[in-house]
Amino acid sequence: MIITLFCLIEGNLPADNYAFPIDISQELLVGVLKQKIRESKPNDLANIDFNNITLWQVDLPDDNDDVIREFRSHKSTKKMRATRKIGLYWPETPSEQVIHVIIELPRVPSHTSIDDELTTNFRRLNIAMGKELTTEDTSYEGADAFAFISEERLGFIDQALTRGRVVLLRSPPSSGKTTLAYILKKYRQNLNPEEEVIAISMLLLERPEVSLSDPDLFDQYWIQQTGKSWRECISSIKPITILIDEAQMIYHMQNSSGIP
Question: Which keywords label this protein (predicted)?
Answer without folding.
Answer: Secreted
